[in-house]
Amino acid sequence: MKKAEFWAAGLVVAACLAPFAAGRYWLDVAFMAAVYAGVASAWNVAAGFSGTFSFGHGLFFGIGAYTSAMLFSALGISPWIGLAAGAALAGAAGAAIGWLGTRYRVGGLSFAVLTLAFAEVALLFVSTFDPLGASRGISIAPPQPPGLLSMQFESAAGFFLVALGFLALCQAVAWAIDAAPLGYRYRAVRENETAAQAMGVSPALVRMSAMAATGALTAAGGSIYGFYLLFVEPRTFFGPDVTIKVILFALVGGIGTVWGPVVGTALLYPAGEWLRAVFGGRVPGLDILVYGSLVIGCCLAFPTGIVGGVGRRLAARAGRGGGAGGRTAG
Amino acid sequence: MLLFAGIIQGVVLGVILALVTSGMVLVYRATGVINFAHGSLMALAMYAAYDVRRYGGVDPLLSWVAVAPLMGFIGWGVFRWIVRPIRDRHHLLVVQALLGLSFVIEAFLLMRYGADLRSVGNVFSGRVIRLMGVGVEMTRAVAFVVSLAGLGGLGLALKHSDWGRRLRAIAADEMAAELAGISVTGVEGQVWCVGVGILGLVGPLLAGVFKLTPDMGLRYTILALVVLIVGGGRTMAATVASGLLVGLSETLGLLYLPGSYGGLTPYALLAVVLMARPAVAARMVRQR
Q1: CATH number of the domain at A2-329, please?
Q2: Is the pLDDT score of B18 beyond 80?
Q3: Which residue of A114, A223, A302, B114 has the fewest CB atoms within a 10 Å radius of its CB?
Q4: For the packed helices B217-231 and B91-113, what is the interaxial angle rounded to 10 degrees?
């Protein structure tokens, strides 16, 4: 077990350092991968740990990006303060949706559809509401001077480091919730809501806190991406694409595990970009075709996710060896 | 008068939506799976009509003869090779695999037909008929009639045919149906075949009503999902009622609300229905 942890840590460090050596293009890819990994992990905190599924993470991603972009464009407020404000707003929105879900007893897949409805309403509203730029979006004048304080960098490396910081924050939150008593309450509600309630766990509090945490983290990712693009637009941020991608990454990596979403993103996102670079230019659509087939293949080959599947296989091997420590390896 | 015209247009759209959704409802009732590739499969059927017209010179009013069986076979294949192997796993896994399938379809359409807007004309294109004094595109009116006939036929088949009885038995209790000697997997495969085949029936007509783009699928999947949930996903009658509600709310919303805020109304309707009818929600939770 110690050995496995050692290897995992080495792999993480290598994955963080490799983009610096690979040049500008791969740094951009790594930036996006880190943002997606963080959001996938945030999605997993609610869906994987507490069973509170959301199909509407675009709502939080968009709230984060638009809040910080508007505060900066209109009032000149620092992107970092905007990021915090967006996270607070999205956290409140998440808690409110969580409350609605428990108050009106909307659970499971219906709750996910409810979040989808809210995200679609937000998308259509922002696409039409003129003060927020409607469907044209908002261009952000680059904050001056470049540096960590203004979240602007002359090189892609700076953005990648910020995204890594964001990912580290998401992982810290996921790990803390997983290990803390709160994580036990989350899992209790996920496995059997009625039984959990009988034991004194409040499903309302679990759903609200899970949605607040996932909303706030996702919004932070949205702010960072917005200031990276220097342009926010309804479809990119409020649209369903972000949600579809992060659910895919989390499912392929292993839902309900702390590291699954990160592993899934690290494998799939660069693969998708590579496919686009190789095929996308020559035959538009071929990259998506291969990517979609990959998704179906992953679902058929790893029905419990890569982290879950590999973990179980390791556990089975250790179990055959009869080692007592083997059982904890999974 | 404007209101009346809006109501007529909304009813026509609503019935068409109801037939499109009925395929999703059948599949959901029999196998408990929400087909997240439904809209993309419809796009595929519409583009197939485009090809049949272009290379075979056959009018879309007739091409359903070829397109419907093709879509039925595709539906059966999706069930056999994608849904069945993983349906007992996490319920989101099937959702994800079907979303993956919709990516594949979208990419295939983009590669084959390019990103331009297209529409497929038929003999009625450009003609307008008057329904109770309101001008309605002829193609839309034909699609309305076909949808009504399709919904009626489906409703009768579910109620009175042996096949319908088997399907309802599976929807009520899968194990009891199996014990009663019904081949559950066999019927489920047939249901996917019919549910997707319906898209082949109505898709060629709709290709003259809606504009075709390769990425149109997801929008129609979500719209069908709204109709399914508002109707509760059980009976044909409820699906028709909810199709009418969604069609009317969208048409009237676009008519009376400023800008494109009208597009919001189906989703607002969805949110209200989800919260006002926890029974629907409870049923969907019981799925897993």
Answers
A1: 1.10.3470
A2: yes
A3: B114
A4: 140
Cα–Cα separations (whole angstroms), residue A309 to A3, A174, A260: 19, 20, 10
**Residue B168 maps to a domain:** yes
Our count of domains for chain B comes to 1
Q: Please report the ipTM that was assigned to this predicted complex.
A: 0.77
Q: What are the pLDDT digits (tens) for A200-241?
A: 888 889 999 999 999 999 999 999 999 998 899 888 898 888
Please name the member of B94, B264, B275 whose beta carbon is closest to the beta carbon of A100.
B275
| Per-residue model confidence as pLDDT tens digits over A60-72 | 999 999 999 999 9
Asked if the structure places residue B225 within a domain, the reply is no
Q: A53, A105, A124: which to substitute to probe chain B, counting the most B Cβ within 10 Å?
A: A124
Per-domain residue ranges for chain A?
2-329
The Cβ of residue B115 has, within 10 Å, a number of other Cβ atoms equal to: 11
**Residue B56 is assigned to a structural domain of this protein:** yes
CB A108 to CB B285 under 8 A?
yes
- Provide the domain limits for residue B140: 12-214
pTM given for the model: 0.81
Residue B219 forms part of a structural domain: no
Average pLDDT over residues B262-285: 71
The pLDDT, as a whole number, for residue B22 is 94
Chain B CB within 8 Å of residue A109 CB = yes
